[in-house]
Amino acid sequence: MSPPLHRQSAAGLAREIRAGDRSVTTVVEETLARIDARNDRTNAFVTVTAERARDAAAQAEQALADGEPVGPLHGVPIAIKDLDDVEGVRTTSGSLLFDDRIAERTDPFAQRLIDAGAIVVGKTNTPEFGLGCTTHNRVAGPTGTPFNPDYIAGGSSGGAAAALADGLVPLAQGSDTGGSIRTPASCCGVFGFKPTFGRVPIADTRDAYSHHTPFSHIGPLARTVEDAALMLDVMAGVHPADPFSLPTPTQSFTAAVHDPIDDLSIAYSPDLGVYPTADSVRTLVGEAVDAFDTAGATVERADPEFGLSNEDILDAYYTFATVLWEGLLDGLTEEGLDPRGGDRDKLTDSTVETILDAESVSTQALTAAQRVRTQVLRGMTDLFDEYDLLACPTLGVPPFEIGELPTEVAGESVEPRRGWLLTQPFNMTGQPVGTLPAGLTDDGLPVGFQLVGPRLAEDRVLAASGAYERVRPWRDRYPA
């Protein structure tokens, strides 16, 4: 018997639609009704494209009736992050500056999803310009995890992860420059995947070279590993507007999910050797990683040798990120806006602080940060000489209450905005990383862990993730 729509996988739903067991128009109407009934709980969606989705559903239904060839996501509802563009749909980027901006183009990854038959039902919430590890802005307000909406959904793809965990859509797109796919996946108990840098093209028409410092990634979030792999199969591939874009591998990502992992060795690090991590996180992640032994892999305790403190890594990451933020400032100015003056009141204090920080970074600081980045890369390269994959927590803490930020983790002081993340080293290296659900705390809040592979080894990460899901399925943990 087929599960209810809000529990059905995207792959399963696509099969049912192609077989005629579900109507696309019914699927879209039920999806829109669920969003309408439940979005107030988490504030996952900021824009719902109901009429556009209904029109697309009618066309999709007609294509099936006419016997036309259809794509792998034909009729499957999907959500797009509100940093990214779909022509004719509002893109606010979480900022009052763009509260009424309508996109004039569709980003390449989104066009590929639409061409594969996916039906965009709306845009999901994000912090202003994606500059945050929690999701809150002055356009739409905060987004909470469905497990307890008073607690953070993570950021910056918080709306995407919350929409999945609350059963509003089966697929959602995210982006990740410092953990923005993996952090929400951890906070909402879903699977999030940051592929190798360049695997999914990013077409910035103003600066095609801006996304490598640090590495920015487009990737899928889903309730199952297979669904994320299916979505990645559609989005990946070379695009002429992205000079870093990569060709797709011979084997599909979906097929890789079912590869055996008997020969894989996995290094498990509870803290990457340098990050403070709460006891509850260590316990849940340690128990979760044991499942890889059951699935056939070999797990050993080992840390990457960075020769750095977590503060060194965070400072270097922050220096890199200012390169992107300086580009943001230039872009706002080119659009006739004055973020330092007349338009200052439309920006949050944290965004203004970030922009001002960007103006003060020297070339010497950037050079020093590149050397730190090289040490991180060397540490990961040496680890992968001995092991096939690395498992570690995604965050040092479980989700916390909206409006709060950690100042201390496991008795150590941390930088409140980013010091509780174990995600940023892998935006320095550009390696593929999945975040998987480890379990729930005693308070019922999700905790996730990262599975990191060498560059271009998405197949390895997906195979181990799929094996883990088969041993420790999480689909029945969702609150609704």
UniProtKB/TrEMBL annotation:
<protein>
    <submittedName>
        <fullName>Amidase</fullName>
    </submittedName>
</protein>
<feature type="domain" description="Amidase">
    <location>
        <begin position="27"/>
        <end position="462"/>
    </location>
</feature>
<dbReference type="InterPro" id="IPR020556">
    <property type="entry name" value="Amidase_CS"/>
</dbReference>
<dbReference type="InterPro" id="IPR023631">
    <property type="entry name" value="Amidase_dom"/>
</dbReference>
<dbReference type="GO" id="GO:0003824">
    <property type="term" value="F:catalytic activity"/>
</dbReference>
<dbReference type="InterPro" id="IPR036928">
    <property type="entry name" value="AS_sf"/>
</dbReference>
<dbReference type="InterPro" id="IPR000120">
    <property type="entry name" value="Amidase"/>
</dbReference>
<dbReference type="Pfam" id="PF01425">
    <property type="entry name" value="Amidase"/>
</dbReference>
